[in-house]
Amino acid sequence: MKENGLIYSWRSDSRTTGATTFLLLLLAVDLAFVFLHFLLLEGVIDNTLFSLERDRGYPEFYQYIKTLSIAILLLSVLTKTKVIGYGMWSLLFVYLLLDDALSMHESYGRYVATTMALAPAIGLRAQDFGELAVSVIAAALFLSPLAWLYMRESHAFKEVSKHLLLLLVGLAFFGIFVDMLHVAIKMGWKVRFLLGVVEDGGEMVMISIMAWYVFLLNSRGGNIGSSLRPAR
């Protein structure tokens, strides 16, 4: 039975030791913030800066640091490989950082909803549909040139791009789909609280996995694509 390429690489390459430790530390901090969020609900602590849903809270700044690190590491990969596509991926993560820090999709989403006179539906606000439209447009603006570069760059870049895209879909699942469920479902505060934890906690874990992956990519000089193939 063939092992998954990523698991094979993780087990067999000694260079992953530091990256594995890095991932475990990232996930440990993620889980610690989720735990503190529950302690805040129970009244054990009263500092709302530990809340997963608090703007400019500690968990959100932790996300900023991870996202910025991903962008910087991708630039490092760019300098090592001279593959321009990594620069485009870096720009995408810079956008994600700015979007999170400046609430760009919320602001532009309100503008789109007002300008296009969008109406509420299926439990969602007009602004939610505006935010979705902004996210789709942003995705198209970044993924279109990435698709063009994908057709022209090396096999290693193609493999990395497929992995990053898969992780990006995971991030979108929590950041968009679960977020909309969080808004649409009206089943009491407990369900809303749990959906909020799934949304924010899921985003934290996905960004941590991305940071680990790019850290590993950088440590291998951009050659992770080919090394993920199991030996025959």
- Strand percentage lies at under 5%
List unreliable stretches of 5+ residues.
Answer: 225-232
Query: What is the arithmetic mean of pLDDT?
Result: 90
* DSSP helical segment count: 9
Rough outline: globular
Radius of gyration: 19 Å
Note the gap between the termini: 11 Å
Question: Can you give a write-up of this model?
Answer:
The chain has 232 residues and is mainly α. The protein has one domain (5-227). It is built from nine helices and no strands. Helix 2 packs antiparallel against helix 8 (189-219) and helix 6 packs antiparallel against helix 7 (155-184). The radius of gyration is 19 Å and the shape is globular. The N and C termini lie close together (11 Å). The model is unreliable at 225-232 (pLDDT under 50).
Topology, pairings included?
Blueprint: H1 5-12, H2 16-42, H3 58-81, H4 85-102, H5 104-115, H6 126-150, H7 155-184, H8 189-219, H9 224-227
